[in-house]
Design a protein that fits this description.
Length: 340
């Protein structure tokens, strides 16, 4: 189906190696379908006891979806992007309930779709090189791939901070926020990759958890992000007297106003959900609606096509984004629902 992901069994280990190193292993639709086919087969194969996910190239597991392809398809109506989102989110759900141990090595850059393939697994490993993020508001999108489920359950308001600013997590932050389970110094990955029992190898290579800067900043984060609106969050950040909070306010105001308001609403709703499936269904509605708005195409243009880093959002301000526009992102899709 594709040569961009290597799938094979080695003894009793089913190995998934994302293999687009020049593109930081960003995901194509073909890669998703190939991984799904392998996981479906291994789930019922008694000779496969455990699945191990890693990335080729040494720079990261996966930088997310191939957003240039999403940009091009969205300009043509978005049918291909909707199909991509559907298969991606269904794969995320499968990983979350996989019947065998699923070990994900989140070494290096792990963002967006890479989080979806790893952070719902049963054993999630980070290293000192891990940089983990849900950066969707940078491109006019909203955290997806089950990311809003994880962010909504992070301690206090740390998930809201990460979602609105698109900030990256260190290994310590990812462990603190529930995106990872165990810390392994990067030299310890080679024995894990070579092992016939990756689960045991991970635990044997584990080291004490590094500190989390986010945990140390809970005071101002929880106080500022508990507000009911993005506008009030920004005001609290600016008035807090904390330099990091003021910087966060500026980071937020650079993002798509529509994406920011929808993101906050999505996380607040996700807190009330009782399952990942419910949140994935919501994310599918939100992402499909985002394809009909100008900010997604404009955000990707500014970040990866023209690379001018100067998106012209529409609407351009938070005040112009109405409650009715936000509500539109959560409207049922009828026969097109994801239906996890």
């Amino acid at each position: 189906m594709t040569t961009d992901v290597q799938l094979h069994t080695d003894g009793r280990v089913g190995r998934i190696v994302l293999d687009r190193p020049r593109a930081l292993n960003s995901l194509t639709h073909g890669m998703l379908l190939a991984v799904r086919e392998a996981l479906d087969a291994w789930a019922v194969d008694d000779d496969v006891a455990v699945v191990l996910l890693s990335g080729a190239g040494g720079r990261g597991l996966c930088a997310g979806a191939d957003i240039r392809a999403l940009h091009d398809d969205a300009k043509l109506g978005g049918a291909g992007a909707r199909a991509f989102f559907r298969d991606e989110y269904l794969l995320n759900h499968l990983i979350s309930r996989y019947p065998k141990p699923y070990v994900a090595l989140m070494d290096g850059i792990t963002m967006g779709g890479g989080v979806g393939l790893s952070a719902h697994g049963s054993l999630r490993v980070v290293t000192e090189h891990s940089t983990i993020a849900m950066p969707e508001t940078r491109i006019g999108l909203v955290p997806d791939v089950g990311g809003s489920h994880l962010l909504a359950r992070a301690p206090g308001e740390t998930g809201t901070h990460l979602a609105l600013t698109a900030a990256s997590m260190t290994a310590g932050d990812a462990l603190f926020c529930g995106f990872a389970d165990i810390f392994v110094p990067s030299p310890g990955l080679a024995p894990v990759l070579a092992s016939a029992d990756p689960v045991a190898a991970v635990h044997a290579a584990a080291a004490p958890e590094p500190d989390s800067e986010l945990a140390a900043q809970r005071g101002w984060i929880d106080a500022c992000y508990a507000a009911d609106t993005v506008e009030e969050i920004v005001e609290r950040l600016r008035d807090s007297g904390v330099p990091e909070a003021k910087e966060a306010a500026e980071q937020i105001l650079a993002k798509s106003p529509t994406a920011l308001k929808v993101t906050l609403a999505a996380l607040r709703r996700a807190r009330r959900h009782t399952s990942l499936a419910e949140t994935l269904d919501q994310e599918f509605r939100v992402s499909c609606t985002a394809l009909t708005t100008p900010d997604l195409v404009e955000g990707i243009r500014a970040q990866v096509v023209d690379k001018d880093r100067n998106p012209q959002w529409s609407p351009a301000t938070l005040a112009e984004v109405t409650d009715a526009e936000v509500a539109r992102f959560f409207a049922p899709l009828g026969a097109d629902e994801l239906g996890c």
